[in-house]
Amino acid sequence: MKNTTKYLSQKCTASPWFVDRLIISAFLHINMIRIINNKLLLSYWIRENDEDYNTLIEFVETINDKKGKFALEKLIELFEFVISPSDRIINGAIYTPAKVREYIVAQAFRREGNALRNAKIADIACGCSGFLYTAAKELKRRTGNTYQYIFQNQIFGLDIQNYSITRSKLLLSLLALSEGEDAEEFRFNLHQGDALTFQWEDHFKGFEGFQIIIGNPPYVCARNLEDAVKENLKNWSVCSSGNPDLYIPFFQIGYECLAEDGILGFITMNTFFKSLNGRVLRKYFEDNKVTIRIIDFGTLQIFKSKSTYTCICFLEKEEQNYIEYYKSTEKELPTNRNQYSRINYRNLDAKKGWNLNDNEIISRIEATGTPFGEKYKTRHGIATLRNDLYIFKPVYEDIDFYYLQNGTLYPIEKGICKDILNSNKLSRAVNFDETKEKILFPYNNDKKPKALEEKTLKDKFPNAYKYLKKKKTELAKRDKGKGKYENWFAFGRTQSLEKVRNKLFFPKFSNQTPNYLISDDENLLFYNGQAIVGHSEEEMLLIKKILESRLFWYYVKTTSKPYSSNYYSLNGTYIKNFGIPDFSDDDIGFLINETSSETIDTFLEDYYGIDNL
Description:
The chain is an alpha/beta fold. Among the domains are: 2-86, no CATH class; 217-243 and 267-354, Rossmann fold (3-Layer(aba) Sandwich); 379-584, no CATH class. Helices cover 36% and strands 18% of the residues. The strands form six sheets. Strands 3-2-1-4-5-7-6-8-9 form a nine-stranded mixed sheet, with helices on both faces. Strands 11-21-17-19 form a four-stranded antiparallel sheet, covered by helices on one side. Helix 2 packs across helix 4 (53-62) and helix 8 (130-143) runs parallel beside helix 10 (162-178). The radius of gyration is 29 Å and the shape is globular. It starts with a helix and ends in a 5-residue tail after the last helix.
């Protein structure tokens, strides 16, 4: 497969028609399949007397399979591979493994039973139609319907790219041909269009919804969406909170395209459980009492080519008061519904986010005392937008200068520098000296600092000014050249510049209980992480003990957004609902002075009424 994709990557600059022709012809050549009637496949077939024939033979030789096979599954994967990188970013196409597609199709078909013979099945973001391929195969096996009938009456697809619709027709035609159906022409219900605006009623007379919808909605984050797409998102109520990623409206689109008693099966992002941009979607599910079954893969990676955090969701068009939830620990898939836990909608909070994993324990933690977000002020670090130009580890120092190495060695006046901490490094066992750096700080020394006047900077700190002047062109590129700053040498943002005496630093992400560092140095700045600020020394010591506890890390792992390598976010969004008990003075004294982590863990878990974490 590696040699095949490498060869194709060299050909991907060619037209989609040429690449598709190469893949189709290789499949026919290797599997020794003859076409007699099908006009579409004949138009892509490279024959011996064609000028591309030598290229075909060269490509066939790169398909390295010990048994000399080129299965349709490999063809599906290749079709997904040759999507251009720019289209992949904008449209979020990604290859879904056969095992996942087969599971989703089997679960959806099981519900339909005998009604499958005439069931209408759709993928509303079909790509090259891997899901529809799987569904068509299974339909034929279960019903005995011909592919001609299935394609014309039972299979429906929609994709924004025209070349994806062409590839869908090629794939389904090859499926039929490989099983002996060589029709001159298949009639397909495959449409090019934008799911955000497409009206099935305009293409499907008497449309009353699909019995089954399956697929893998596009993986495009909000920052990569074009302006026209953002405008179209406004058509869907579930997109009215935060900055919605493109997969979010597909739940509403799909659910509203289901027939009565229909079922939808998606593999998609699991971030909507807790994210701000998933808030209205959660409310939509709760308000409509949607029957939902969720298989949560957490941090497990399902897709080879993309780092994503996914779940399988089944939505059924019938009212139910609870969600069924299954946490997959080794990519296993549940075989029956008794393996799911049930969580009543009334025990979930759409606004705060859904606690689906160990719901009872998490609900108990959040119901205790006062939410963290109401009790403690948190702050993100400074944002220069060019840390590499401002933050440095001195190569050496003398009485007056720190020496900064950045292409050339620059002496920087000590009077314009401050200590700064990279608090993200606290996810590892490090001390303050290992994380401390210097920052060139072109601001005055007020409680709420303001950028120096350029003349003051030049006169008082001529070496620092000379260095910044040398980097002026680079600094001007911040915010794509459109930034408006106090002065050209000021930081990109003004956050976290003011002096605060008490700060408790911790990272944004960690794969273990991180280190928490308290400082009373009002001049100490930080970046890349976050801090609790402005509370008394006693309060800081107390919250430090709580954050270091086994209970808090359990809460983070259970409720927070996962990242690769089992890292979890400690962003305020995910920890703001952690309940802080209303401790007595004696309890506070005990926690602050106790040195045994095991004793503290036991004390806190008893306080929250939780056993066996």
